[in-house]
Amino acid sequence: AKALFLNQLACWHSRGLPSCSNTMANAELEVKIKEWYAKFSTPDTDRDYSKYFNIIEDLRNQICRHTIENAGIVLQVDNARLAADDFKLKYENELFLHQSVESDINGLRRVLDDLTMNKSDLELQIESLNEELLYLKKNHEEELMSFRGITSGDVTVEMDAAPGVDLTKLLNDMRAQYEELADKNRREAEEQFNKQARTTYLNISANVDQLSSSKSEVTELRRTMQGLELELQAQIAMKQSLEGTLAETERNYCDQLGQIQVQISSLEEQLLQIRSDMESQNAEYQQLLGIKTRLEKEIETYHRLLEGEAGLVSEQILKL
Asked: From which residue to which does any coiled coil extend (predicted)?
């Protein structure tokens, strides 16, 4: 329709308007221009872009809000990761301390085993000394009995010799020496045994106390380690949950951003199309306005020519 109307205007302009109907042609041309402009023109005032602006503003607000929420979730994940690392470090320290205490306990157990073996050796030594003492006493009694049997016989020997040795005194002296030696060995053995036994008992008591304290400490450390393990597992579970929430949120935001980008692209295409249509319509309007201006000038020229011809005819009539 626009091309046909422009072709008609061009034909009228090339052929010229009839002189008898200049005013009517001008009016008809103005009416057609107004009708075409009213039909095809789409001024800016006829289009309401406020709804698009509101949608864009709402989408921007959503993007800002989701960005802030995303940053908050990332901060929570970082805090959970730091807490998990802290608990992991505490757990490693407690585990190292637990292993150190267990190593000390194993060392104390070895010391206790050594003390037990030393105690057994000392008991064997005491038992051996007691047996040796009994053996010495038995030999002494047997020798004493044999000497007594010899001295109790009725043998009389007369010799012209020096006075003999008093066997009873000699035996008593030997007996006293053996008894003194046995008592000395017994006292030394008992003293050594008591000394080593006291030392051993003191060491055993100290080791038992230390072992009990170490067992209590190990129990407490084990309880603490179990608590830390449970807390670490809870932190790891919370971290995994937050990471899953973050991933889900990021996917949702990506989907929403994709939809928003599609809407923005569509709105931009519409705005470009509207701008192109407006520029095209403006160019056509300017073209029509130029044609209208030229036609008005030609019509005015025709009016002047007609007025001039009318004046000549009037003069000729007056001359006649």
From this structure: 105-139, 167-298
d(CA 237, CA 221) in angstroms, rounded, equals: 24
Q: Which positions ≥6 away from 154 have C-beta within 8 Å? A: none
Query: Tell me: the pLDDT tens digits for 84-97?
Result: 888 888 888 888 88
> Which DSSP state fits 19?
G
Q: Is the dihedral of CA 80, 81, 86, 87 positive or negative?
A: positive
pLDDT at 42: 52
Q: At what angle do helices 2-15 and 22-40 cross, to 10 degrees?
A: 160
For residue 1, give the 3-state DSSP assignment.
coil
Q: 300: helix, coil or strand?
A: helix
Secondary structure letter of residue 153 according to DSSP: S
Whole-model pTM: value is 0.34
For 162, the 3-state DSSP assignment is: coil
Burial 204-232, CB ≥16 within 10 A → b, else e: beebeeebeebeeebeebeeebeebeeeb
290 Cβ neighbours under 8 A, 6+ residues apart: none
Alpha carbon distance 162, 164 (integer Å): 6
Q: Which among 93, 84, 44 has a CA at the least distance from the CA of 232?
A: 84
